[in-house]
Amino acid sequence: MTTIKALTTGIRTSNQSLRMVALLYCINLALAAILALTLRSIISSTVGDSMALHNLIKDFDYTVYSDFMFKHGARVGALTSQVTWLILFSMLVNTLLGGGIISTVASPDRRFSMRSFFEGCGNYFLRFLGLLVIFGLILVLVGALLSFILAAIHSVLTASSVSEVIPITLGLVLILVFLFVMMLIVMMADYAKIAMVVNDIPSVFKASWTGMKFVFRNFFKAVGLQLVIVILGILAIVLYLFLANWIGMATPITVFLTFIIQQVSVGFKSWTRVLTFASETTFFAGVEASRPVLAEVSAAPTQEPAPAEPVESVAIPAPSAPVRKKRAPRRVPTKKPVATRKRISKKK
Amino acid sequence: MNPSFRFLAIFLITSFTLSEARQITFPEPLSERIASYRISVTLDAEKKMLLGKESLTWTNTSKDRITELQFHLYWNAFKNTKTTFMKESGGQHRGASIGADGWGWIDVTSISIRDGEDLKSRMEFIRPDDGNDMDETVFRVPLARPVRPRQSVTVDIDFTSKIPTIFARTGFNEKFFMIGQWFPKIGVYEPAGMRYATEGQWNCHQFHSNTEFYADYGVYDVDITVPKSFVVGATGLLQNDRENANGTKTHFYHAEDVHDFSWTASPLYKVVEDQWQHVKIRLLIQPDREKSNGHRYMHSAKAALQYFNDHVGKYPYPNLTIVDPQWGALGAGGMEYPTLITGGSFWGLGEGFRVVEGVTIHEFGHEYWYGLVGNNEFEEAWLDEGINQYYETRIMDATYGKKTSFIDFFGYHMGDAEFTRSNYTTMNNPKVSPTYLNAWEYKAGGYGTLTYQKTATFMTTLERLIGPAVMDEAMKTYFERWKFKHPCSRDFISVIDEIVEKRHGDKFGKSMQWFFDQVLYGTDVCDYELTSLGSQRVEGTRGVVDSAGKRITPREKYGPKKVDTFESHVLVSRLGEVKMPVDVLVHFDNGTEVREHWDGLARWKQFEYVRPERILWAKVDPDEVLTIDLNLNNNSKTTEPVSQPIWKYSLKFLFWIQNTLQYTSWF
Q1: A7 in a structural domain
Q2: Are domains B1-261 and B390-519 of this chain identical in fold?
Q3: Regions of chain B with pLDDT less than 50
Q4: How far apart are CA B624 and CA B465, in angstroms?
Q5: Is residue A281 part of a domain?
Q6: What distance in Å separates residue A243's CA from the closest CA in chain B?
Q7: Which one of A294, B20, B85, B291 is most buried, by most CB atoms within 10 A?
Q8: Does domain B390-519 have CATH number 3.10.100?
Q9: Contact A280/A105 with Cβ under 8 angstroms?
């Protein structure tokens, strides 16, 4: 499974799930609108009838902004302090929705339906919440440790620097390193979720481990896929900034136009989120399907074996013959006798 | 003659001739030249020490017999944690902290009157401000023979100094040295009648965290010996230099009619030179920053030179040195010395952040306010910092745009004057202290904002009250009258009174003291508000009216058109305690306007109208004269609010929240 194939499949899947994208967008809009409309109300009730607002029609006016924030900043501050709670709530909502998204993109026909979407949300919410806690802790701990290490490296390497070129350049590089590691952890969380759905793993710890292993085993392809999506996101931001700066918001029409562009940008990011899961799921499934199935060789049993279940054995292929991959059927995990496993080598 | 002796004689004569060949800058002295110095100093760049020999010629221009001399030893402020400076600053100053081994000090190893008494045993540290016996920044030496009026005395002083790490404007960082306030410096003797002195007294304060400096004018001849690879910049003009056998180089500097001497040395400086009229500008810049910031320093320096030349007076010196401190030494930046200023810049600093320009223009302005007009920075810091901040806002806005002069980045912009104003208007407690206060007495804080930004803001208000042309005339008069002297606040106000009366008569009363009593000496704040406005329809007259002895209908009297009219009111209020005269502009819906004038004394005033038109909007202080008004947004009201800006910023906020939720919830 190549990165390109995973990406193109992901794009196709995302385009087939535009209703899901719209749902994500609407939820994001609804959450954000609560605060935005409150701000509108604050501005309107405090300085709404002041002629000073005329200075803001065509352009930004620092004096109007500064006087407003000093006089009424406490109210705005109370509002922006709610952003933290909103972020936490939004994370929970997105944890809920994640199950639905992955269920949809991992389903055989990859078609969105409200019913199956919300079923997926419900099925996986608690487990995804567990993953959120685990990877949240990992992010915080690794982030703190890495910050400390990188800061120490920076300090040592720039201690006697007489020019800021090296501290600034090195600082930027170390920030990129930091962000890269954080991105890896987020990727592991994504693949843990995907593994949980695709392989129906009930244990959050096992799913976490599976996600981590998957990223490291397929490091370059997984990172490559993620970087392509990140670059798409950055290009979208650049395009928005360019358009917004060009159009401006000096008249009611341009305010409306810019609003539309802003919402298109938000919608695009919602689509990108679906694309991320769809591509990663395709990539994961593809790689998993191409993994060799391990044959189990019984040793002297130390306990009563479980009732025999039909297991297809894989014939040892001829050296030059391609191996037909066969996935083992889904099994409910049971206690199995300890067995030694013999890895059967095969040519890909 | 023995050849060796002949060689030695030639060498000595040549050296003496070279060192003594001072280029005279001004044919006639510009100042009284009360304190003139000849200093030889050697920098030990490895041990971070200075070894100096100083000859001070001090002239008693008063009518008093001077029985003692008082000196500053500024660097003793960095000696330990118990000095007045370190106690007040908590070890932090201008964003820098003194390092573990970064302490500094200055020791007078010998002091004597030329051909006279040895004063060393009579040196006594004094603490005229706070009695802190750990503070050794001021000493006195009583004289066996008083200095009579018009008599001069020459004092020879040997000193050694330990250079601190960059802290409080001066010190070293690696091989970068910025050396300011580094030599034993005589205080100012104020005879009765000078500034506030009712009797003759030395004005020689301890070095405090918030204070700067005060000294008399004179001539400086300074030779500076540094490692040969170091580039040197200093106050005054380089006369010549000489390489020494021990790998050092001596640079001879001469400066006339200045009250301080500072210098800098670093092997890393790149020298860039330019010219503005008679002034040679020499920029000592870090190599990495030359390409991005060199032109910014030069452009802003020239803009400042031109502006001051046009609006205040001529810059008399033939040179200006600008120092760009290296990374790790930014605590030395943003400082002024006669003919030498330190700036501040970063590699890669975008042109939309005009930090380089702001600092350069501000520090150059100090060549006038503090350099040429030598106010006492200990006691009346507003006279240089505040007035200079006012000029910084004028020059920045004139050069780079009123709304964009300070920051202009991605559609968000800020002018220097409006940023300065906002620093004052958004103070947590603008009433914390008056602006007029000894710099070390701002115990509850507010020194910086009140001295710099509040002063600049009320100076702008003053300018708008009396008019820009009158303000310029007043400032030019103040500059010409007080350059090379030591004015006080009273002297400044007196000049303002004189020019305002000359140009405006008694429009503002007999004096502008009422203005300064409120904004300079007082702590009250200003806030005028357009409290309410409205128009009520008054129905046309019904019934009968009398006309020419007859009783007729209103229609017969007034004609067939409607006779409805509106009773309108505009209520303005004074929310603050500062009282200023103010205009009120009322705009009606037919486009006509009425401008009212209010003396601003009462708590409120209501204007009433009976007209066929309704009021559309009204503004108190429509020309924004009162920049000290804490809230300009409440100065106006309209009966037809616009919603577009509200939607604009609400939608921007919506977008910002949406993005935040998306990025933080990605996980």
Answers
A1: yes
A2: no
A3: 4-5, 7-19
A4: 10
A5: yes
A6: 12
A7: B85
A8: no
A9: no
**Percentage of the residues of chain A whose pLDDT score is greater than 90:** 70
A293 in a domain, yes or no?
no
Put simply, whether B286 touches A (Cβ < 8 Å) is: yes
Domain ranges of chain B: 1-261, 390-519, 528-646
pLDDT band at residue A305 under the 50/70/90 scheme: low
The CA-to-CA distance between both ends of chain A, in Å, stands at 12
* pLDDT score of A39: 94
State pLDDT tens for residues A48-64: 999 999 999 988 999 99
**What was the pLDDT predicted at B412?**
87
Please tell me the total count of domains within chain A: 1
Helices and strands in chain B, H and E counts: 13, 35
Best CA proximity match to B76, nearest among B42, B123, B36, B125: B125
In angstroms, the CA B121 to CA B174 distance is: 37
Contacts of B414 (CB under 8 A, 6+ apart): A62, B403, B404, B406, B407
Residue A210 clears pLDDT 80, i.e. is over it: yes
Q: Is the pLDDT of residue A342 over 50?
A: no
**Which is higher by pLDDT, B666 or A165?**
A165
CA pair distance A142, B400, nearest whole angstrom: 46
Q: Quick check: A317 pLDDT over 60?
A: no
ipTM over 0.95: no
- Do B647 and A254 touch, CB atoms closer than 8 A? no
Taking CB atoms and an 8 Å limit, are A56 and B647 in contact across chains?
no
Contact in structure between B480 and B313 (CB atoms under 8 Å) = yes
Return mean pLDDT, chain B.
93
Give residues 189 to 208 of A whose Cβ lies within 8 Å of B: 189
Nearest CA in chain B to A94: B665
Q: Which residue has the tokens 């709610």?
A: A82
Strands B248-258 and B263-266: unpaired
The fold for domain B1-261 equals: Immunoglobulin-like (2.60.40)
Q: Which residues of A touch B629 (CB under 8 A)?
A: none
Q: Which two tokens stand for residue A213?
A: 């292993």
The DSSP call for residue B218 is E
Structural contact between residues B54 and B39, judged by C-beta atoms closer than 8 angstroms: yes
Provide the strand spans (E) within chain A: 295-297, 340-342
- Residue A154 maps to a domain: yes
A189 and B667 in contact by Cβ < 8 A?
A: yes
Domain containing A201 equals 3-288
